[in-house]
Design goal:
Layout (H helix, E strand, L loop, with lengths): L1 E4 L4 H12 L4 E4 L17 H5 L4 E4 L6 H7 L5 E5 L11 H14 L5 E6 L2 E2 L6 H11 L3 E4 L5 E2 L2 E2 H13 L5 E6 L4 E2 H11 L6 E4 L1 H13 L7 H5 L10 H7 L6 H14 L5
Length: about 280
């Protein structure tokens, strides 16, 4: 039995569908999905019960819940955990610290398995980073790029991440592994250019200083106004360049190009009636 936490997320839904299509027994766990078994990772209520009888536990929930899962799982249960590439960031922020703490808990546990740290995920129905970027492109005459947009990014298409999780769940792990998973590397500027081309618009990319942008965002958030997390802009100062070599070798997944991925994402968003 494979137990999947976070079954109501884009990743969880895709994972459960794939596992069942391959004839694997799967128990969906969620606080919100009507057709899933209920358990609350925040309080721990019901977690041990839904894990009972499992041979593999996959968590698509936030990494902050790793401790709850570890405490509820017998040591012979194999784990597949989803973290985040924020773990590799040098920008001081609480999000990265939570993922690092989760990784440390896993590495010091008695469990076999793997924690995957995906880069920016796109293409799902709940994802809003690139969909929001496409919406902005239609409304403004240029795209501001903090620091010129020269930093390296490696966004991963949601179905490629699901492939990684499926193969990780089917693999027998002989210890504890940490693995970054990502799409092919490109500059942020090139990613934006491809996004613009994919919806048939032309927008100049204008370099703007990153520091003033951070100050403005912090001010807006301080005033209680909805704004991009300043740490996202701070991260424009560093490259998020995760090699896909180990991902291909260990999980047998070759990520698609961003050009093909964004077209597939747009098709999916149109099919679901989501605004672009």
């Amino acid at each position: 039995m494979i137990v999947v936490f976070g079954a109501s997320t884009d990743i969880g839904q895709g994972l459960v569908a794939r596992l069942r299509s391959e004839g694997l027994a799967c128990r969906e766990v969620s606080r919100s999905a009507n057709d899933a078994v209920r358990a609350d990772l925040r309080t721990g209520d019901g977690v041990a019960k839904v894990i009972s009888g499992a041979s593999i536990v996959v968590s698509c929930a936030h990494a902050e819940h790793t401790g709850t899962i570890l405490r509820a799982c017998p040591s012979d249960v194999q784990l597949v955990l989803v973290g985040s590439a924020w773990r590799y960031s040098r920008v001081p922020n609480a999000r990265a610290n939570l993922v690092r703490e989760a990784e440390d808990l896993f590495l010091h546990s008695d469990h076999r398995g793997v924690m995957l740290h995906p880069s920016m995920i796109y293409g799902g129905n709940q994802e809003n980073n690139l969909r929001r970027l496409l919406q902005v492109m239609r409304k403004i005459p240029f795209i501001p790029a903090p620091g010129g947009g020269r930093q390296i990014v490696c966004p991963i298409y949601v179905e490629d991440l699901v492939d990684c999780l499926v193969n990780a769940a089917k693999r027998s792990w002989d210890g504890k592994y940490i693995l970054g998973v990502a799409g092919p590397s490109l500059t942020w500027r090139r990613m934006v250019e491809i996004c613009a081309q994919s919806i048939g618009v032309r927008r100049p990319i204008i370099s703007v200083p990153a520091r003033p942008a951070v100050w403005i965002l912090e001010l807006l958030r301080g005033l209680g106004l909805k704004a991009v997390d300043p740490n996202v802009v701070r991260r424009f100062s560093e490259n998020v360049d995760i090699s896909t070599v180990r991902m291909r070798e260990i999980l047998s997944v070759t990520p698609r190009s961003f050009e093909s991925g964004i077209l597939a994402a747009i098709e999916n968003w149109h099919r679901k009636g989501l605004t672009l």
